């Protein structure tokens, strides 16, 4: 007889792995995670991995990011060292006229408890002497930081396996049906039966949604990142646009292109990104770039996460978002609350799938 | 070759680490790379890639030709940022600050 699962999660990126791990903590459910490839082959393995809060707007979205950032130290105590560092985050600006909007940002975010300072050039340069003197100011918050995304996903999975979660890798889901209240998930390696289903397929959410007749309103947005050779400590903070990893590499990049699922790196963006690097940190001109990579952001059409039940299909859930590295501890936590208590400690109303008019038309 | 033999010189990754990645389910060079950092060093896998592919081939008993090559990325050898920094700008590289800062009259 085919084994029946309580929950099957499609996708083992940072989101699917976090949900599986958090769900497994109470060890009450038989959980299966299915991935078409190997974890980290999707967006979670080609990311900047800032745990970034302070200029996420509107402020309710900033608040979600803050709550998630606050969970990181507890998460590390449970799953191990994911190299989370609360470095503080600096977002520089180069034009004096931006100071007004910086002050407005600080005021708005203060309403939800995100503390932002608007710094003068002197204050910025005192905190980060390597930054360019052309900078006229910056917004700064203590809450921002970064994490090692490879360690993060690996340790979510390791902790989940310890709690008896089953994983099936290199195994694409090719169809999903609902039969007598159970989902039949057809994969290359066979059919799995499950009571509840979670879609966590990142940039592939649209194609996985189609198996259930859903039109998931997400876009694919490519980002390209340059990686330097390991350098002596140059910057201490996470800077909007770049960070320095534990091993000394500086990761630079903040490009956005809608080119579908195309993970090539291109010379024009590499050149522009190199220029940005030097504009921010003049000393980087002398550093060598060792590699570049590109990742595909999954961007819901209105930019905000989609988290919660799929309104038209009982027992089906979805979690898809940009900034999933920042949000993964929170997403795992609230999805678990949803499964175990049917209610959540934060209001998921704004994150519902049926807020999109595209979705309403398709059902 | 024993367990402590260094396979990836740039990142100092030994045989045991590669084998444990394969045991936990990784089957391709790039998958092993993301778990162990093997191949992410300055030589960009030029030195370690054939060795790692041989280890995969032996552990999984598949022929070498079935194991994909690592994805090659620009630049193929380390290149100075100054040399890459072009003069023109493109609208695709955006400033984090400019994107999030609320404009006059925006709703919060
Ligand atoms: C350049 C760049 C920089 C970024 N910077 C940051 C940052 O600084 N901070 C931050 O918080 N976020 C950042 N992000 C975003 C963040 O990386 C993503 O939000 C996050 O990785 C999404 O995780 P995921 O699990 O949803 O997707 P993925 O990691 O892509 O996981 C989805 C998984 O689903 C699997 N899958 C898909 N279809 C199927 C199928 N049919 N059957 C089985 N399995 C399937 C895939 O194989 C994949 O493993 C960045 C993204 C990019 C591209
Ligand atoms: S030897 Fe592996 S990257 Fe150079």
TrEMBL record, chain A:
Domain of life: Bacteria
EC number per UniProt: 1.-.-.-
InterPro entries in the cross-refs: FAD-dep_OxRdtase, FAD/NAD-bd_sf
Stretches assigned to the FAD dependent oxidoreductase domain: 6-338
Name the UniProt record assigns to this protein: FAD-dependent oxidoreductase
Source organism of the structure: Tigheibacillus jepli
One Gene Ontology term of the molecular function aspect: oxidoreductase activity
Pfam families with a match to the protein in the record: DAO (PF01266)
Keywords, alphabetical: Oxidoreductase
TrEMBL record, chain B:
CDD domains registered for this protein in UniProt: GlpA-like_Fer2_BFD-like
Xref: Pfam families: SO_alpha_A3 (PF17806)
Domain of life, per lineage: Bacteria
UniProtKB keywords: Oxidoreductase
Domain SoxA A3: from-to ranges: 7-86
PANTHER family, per the entry: ANAEROBIC GLYCEROL-3-PHOSPHATE DEHYDROGENASE SUBUNIT B (PTHR42949)
Name of this chain's protein: (2Fe-2S)-binding protein
Organism from which the protein derives: Tigheibacillus jepli
